[in-house]
Design a protein that fits this description.
Length: 242
């Protein structure tokens, strides 16, 4: 069913075959419907400091480090990078707004997809730019027995973060697999760039307000309109990449 996309991927990267062993999952906008909260908090905090940012732009920067996002806006509005102090102040304000929002819901279809991956004998791995200490607790509460600390890449593990391939390269390493033995599930343009730069077949799920074109232009090999629709077609994906 997805043979054309697979063949194109193999040709582009010079790989001979796929043999699916691990699926690398982004978290925000894939496992949790948390992006509306992040986008609201970013635009609110930035605007407070005179750095005008729409919620839609926040979606474009999803996955970038906080400092990286702040400096892009600071360059545009102030013509200079933000100071370390300004970065801390803006990031604290963003976190305060974010933490005051109701906790994000599980993404519909995410739990069944994770279970299908696990039940098929493939390894689910988490690759997120997020770094709250409560992350593992929260993941275990919503998706019990899926992720362990050794199979997670968080902001504590990386130096550069997305769109650098680093987080996904570490994900492959933690799973002990090669790029052609993995798939990535991502919702953000920068995350897709990071995953394709790590030479992994990248499945985009468009769970936000950006046009599909933004995700395919970033390099997505396959696109689904939701996590649920990917879950519904998982058996066909598995058959293609097994
Ligand atoms: Mg995401």
């Amino acid at each position: 069913m997805f043979e054309t996309e697979k063949e194109q991927y193999l040709r582009t990267h010079g790989f001979g075959h796929t043999r699916l062993k691990a699926v690398l999952f982004d978290m925000d906008g894939v496992l949790f419907d948390s992006m509306p909260n992040h986008a609201y908090a970013w635009s609110h905090a930035m605007t407070q400091f005179g750095l005008h940012m729409t919620a839609e732009e926040a979606y474009m920067h999803e996955g970038r480090t906080g400092a990286g996002t702040i400096n892009i806006l600071a360059q545009r509005h102030w013509g200079r990078n933000a100071t370390e102090e300004e970065i801390q102040e803006i990031y604290r304000s963003k976190s305060d707004v974010f933490n005051a929002r109701p906790e994000a819901e599980e993404m519909p279809g995410a739990a069944s997809l994770l279970n299908k991956v696990k039940d098929s004998g493939r390894l689910p791995v988490l690759v997120t730019g997020s770094g709250q200490h409560s992350l593992l607790d929260r993941l275990n509460r919503h998706f019990p027995h899926i992720f362990t600390g050794e199979r997670m890449v968080t902001s504590f593990d990386v130096q550069y973060g997305k769109p650098n391939p680093e987080p996904y390269l570490i994900g492959l390493q933690k799973a002990g697999v090669q790029p052609w033995e993995a798939l990535v599930v991502e919702n953000a343009p920068l995350g897709i760039q990071a995953a394709t730069a790590a030479n992994i077949f990248t499945i985009a799920v468009n769970t936000g307000p950006l046009p599909d074109r933004v995700l395919t232009d970033a390099g997505a090999n396959l696109l689904f309109p939701s996590v649920q629709s990917l879950c519904d077609q998982w058996e066909m994906v598995l058959e293609t990449f097994a």
